[in-house]
Known about the structure:
The protein has helices at 23-32, 48-56, 76-83, 94-106, 150-162, 179-193, 218-221, 232-245, 259-290, 294-301, 325-335, 345-366, 397-407, 456-463, 479-486; strands spanning 4-6, 13-15, 38-42, 64-68, 109-112, 123-126, 132-136, 142-147, 168-171, 202-205, 226-229, 254-255, 378-382, 411-415, 421-422, 427-428, 442-445, 469-472, 490-493. It is of the alpha/beta class and 499 residues long. β11, α8 (232-245) and β12 form a beta-alpha-beta unit. α11 (325-335) runs antiparallel to α12 and α12 (345-366) crosses α13 (397-407).
Amino acid sequence: MKKTSKNPITNKNYQIPEILDDSLGINNFLSRNNGKPVVVVQGLGFVGAVMSIVCANALNAEYAVIGTDLPSESSYWKIASINDGFFPVVSSDPKVEEYYLKTKKKDNFYATYDNFAYQFADVVIVDINLDVQKESSSDYGLSGFNVDLSSFKLAIRDIGQNCKENVLILIETTVPPGTTKIATEIIESEYIKRGLSIDKVKIGHSYERVMPGPNYIDSIQNFYRVYSGINKISADSVENFLRTIIKTDEYPLTRLGNTNSTEMSKVLENSYRAMNISFIVEWSRFAEEAGVNLYEVVNAIRMRPTHKNIMLPGIGVGGYCLTKDPLLASWSRQNINGDGNEGLMMSEMAVSTNDKMPSYAFNFLKSFYGDNFLKGKRVQLLGVSYISGVGDTRFTPVEIFYKELVKNECDIYLHDPYVSYWEELGLVVNQDLNTLNNDIDIVVFSTGHSEYANNKNLIKQLGKLDNLLIYDTIGILSDKEIYTLSKNHTVKVLGRGDI
């Protein structure tokens, strides 16, 4: 039986080729873009796909861009969808669709599964996933973890076995400090096997700071970049390339001394943010016990310029970075750059604390009903994405919350304006706020989408129902909305002990 790959956005099935040879398609694309430098982006996920269209719309260069990914059931649809005229990333940023349509008009972006593409690359950008395998305790806290570099090494080897001698390899993937040196050893080994000069190896690291949501494109093109290279020639080449796609006159580049430094910069940056979030968890509980509105407390503290980045309560941390990056750093200390004995304990604790947040949010809900009274309750979840303004359900904290509801035998209804299909759970998601199920007992604001904020129609719609428990896990409801809804319903806000 022939394998297919289903586009979860359009539900269209694409047949995966049995013979993995796309040389004709690649050659035809390059002939239409004759003379243009070729950028190959390895990985067509949430970073790689958008990075591809940014490169295809470079500020002061004309590139022919080829995106590559694996011909697997979970990713082949992205390749076929791009070439079929449908961009595989749904975002609230209108520039995403605008940039993709420009590439279609210019015909300078092509997607493939064939490593043959690396032969023509002047620049290869590595944007593949590097996951952390977590072991969780019964309350979803971290009990152990491991980092497996084998897939990453294979991806780097694919480049080394096919690329030109003087190609620039730019690693954007967030990796444990020391990984670019490992990649360099692999590339040099493959060069030697092919009789190429390792003196011409050019490898750099410049981590992405992609922020899915309304500023998706700008987080790549109009944002500060940190970069480095394995030597001066590599660093200079990275700088020259970045200047073609980033507005460096407004957002100057920062060069660090070596690739260990840039790798550490990314995981330290995200570890700091993860710890900031975990810090507020225990204060949320304290505020609820003390009858305090933690939101107004935090906003008062934020009046001090030095404290503007203190976090607010929430259902939990999700997405691809904050859930794992502190662990990449800790693993590096134990396996690559440290003494091999002790990891970064505070960073690990932050991840463990954040992993528990959805369970805590659920227990806060459960406390209103008792152990046996949630069964059969009809629950409307507003939002399944891990963050506002984007259709990204990877490691979303809503998943743990959802599974707790399932365990308690609730009937669950899903809504998200950016997600039509929850791929990890295989669930269809309603995208129309006007067709919410009216026969519900509990409404949970679980993602802070702007479509839920200051939405008079939604408040009016909820106001017409009887005797709901409205549970706001992310503080999206205003005081006025809470007052209005409280006339007919019970309203609870995570981190607010004053209502």
